[in-house]
Amino acid sequence: MSIHWHHQMYLLYKQEKIVKEQHEHTNAINRQLLMEYSELQSGVSIFQISQEKLLMFPPTKAKDVSI
User: Are 53 and 47 in contact (CB under 8 A)?
Assistant: First the structure.
């Protein structure tokens, strides 16, 4: 009975190790996506503030200036 119990504990340990690795991988991807999203949002907010408060707008069309 103890040999069977030892084998079951070993199998559980292997399964736990695999689940932990998958969890760490998922957390790493989640952190990366959150960082990319926050960078994107900060860029969008800076763009909106520049338009609203500083009245900075991108040029609509290039003008030909001949000298």
Answer: no
Write out 13-39 in H/E/C secondary structure. Answer: HHHHHHHHHHHHHHHHHHHHHHHHHHH
What does the block give as tokens for 42? 């900060």
Joined tokens for residue 29: 């991807």
Residues in contact with 57: Cβ distance below 8 Å, sequence separation at least 6, in sequence order? 51
- Contacts (Cβ under 8 Å, ≥6 apart) of 63: none
Q: Where exactly are the structural domains of the chain?
A: 25-56
pLDDT in tens, the chain (67 residues): 688 899 999 999 999 999 999 999 999 999 999 998 888 888 888 877 777 887 777 777 766 555 5
